[in-house]
Design goal:
Length: 311
């Protein structure tokens, strides 16, 4: 796949002094590349949705034959939601069959991979084009074209902060993921930096694998699987708190039913665990400054609270 458009290459071959028009062409070329990447992502998402709908239709046929109306309705609601391009998907009802939950988990994970791949490619494009503009800035400065060099710098800044770039990489959604800060005072559990290899619980040999970019630089409370059921914390700044929960079949179902009833929303991303363990499902909830009670566990399960790293 090409990463730099013809317009960009023409600009790079253009001898100084560079005028404003050539810089505009450079920026338009970058936008064209972004549009192309976005179209590729949309095609991948459309193909994924088509496959998901087909799997749902197969499930609908099986659940219809079972005669269980309470199982049929959630499947048909899911088909309607996906066909209507609803995202995020609405929460599943308690009567949703387990196979539907498994299919949705797979769909969400595959969608995450598509978005992550797109963000990576766009980031590479942004990095490459801004580096080329910085080189051009140096060349123009050496040639005595200060105005041209400043224009090249401004173009690089515009590309780095363009709405296309920010919306794709999550730049203009920063508030959507901003973790709240939590006071460590009164916490009776270790607070650990969220990173690869960190032990999640004190009584199980589970550790974190890949950390999603939304939670980079955060900390977490290292508790025990099975206890406590709830902790009280002091939220020091408005923002989101995250609960990462084990995905054991029964526990996963319990958390998906109970946490949404308490105002927690399931996130699109998950946290990978090391050594081949199942990933942890993540829930988020926005909290104002003040005291808050956090549900941490259900029988036989474990969850960990994730919040902003101390500044």
């Amino acid at each position: 796949m090409k990463t730099v458009s013809i317009a960009l290459m023409l600009f790079l071959a253009f001898e100084p002094p560079a005028n404003a028009q050539s810089l505009d062409e450079f920026q338009r070329g970058f936008t064209e590349e972004c549009v192309g990447l976005g179209q590729e992502r949309d095609r991948d998402l459309e193909k994924l949705a088509t496959n998901y709908i087909k799997a749902l239709q197969d499930l609908d046929e099986k659940t219809t034959q079972s005669g269980n109306l309470d199982a049929v309705l959630p499947v048909r609601d899911e088909i309607e939601a996906v066909e209507g391009s609803k995202w995020p998907l609405p929460f599943l009802s308690k009567t949703a069959p387990e196979r539907l939950r498994e299919l949705r988990d797979t769909y969400i994970e595959e969608r995450r991979k598509i978005e992550e791949r797109h963000s990576k490619r766009l980031g590479e494009l942004v990095s490459k084009t801004t580096d080329l503009l910085k080189q051009r800035e140096v060349e123009l400065t050496k040639a005595g074209d200060v105005d041209g060099a400043l224009a090249a710098r401004e173009t690089a800044s515009a590309i780095s902060n363009s709405p296309t770039n920010k919306s794709t990489l999550g730049g203009d959604k920063e508030d959507e993921f901003r973790p709240a800060r939590v006071s460590r005072e009164g916490l009776q559990f270790p607070v650990i930096r969220l990173q690869l290899g960190a032990n999640i619980f004190t009584n199980r040999a589970y550790s974190f694998g890949k950390i999603p970019k939304q939670l980079t630089g955060c900390s977490f409370v290292q508790t025990k699987i099975g206890r406590p059921n709830e902790i009280e914390i002091e939220v020091e700044s408005d923002g989101y708190l995250y609960l990462a929960s084990t995905t054991h079949k029964d526990v996963h179902k319990e958390n998906r039913d109970v946490l949404p009833s308490k105002g927690w929303k399931q996130c699109e991303f998950m946290i990978e665990m090391a050594r081949g363990h199942a990933p942890m499902i993540v829930f988020s909830k926005r909290f104002p400054k003040g005291k808050a009670k956090i549900p941490l566990t259900f029988p036989g399960s474990g969850s960990t609270l994730i919040f902003a790293q101390d500044e």
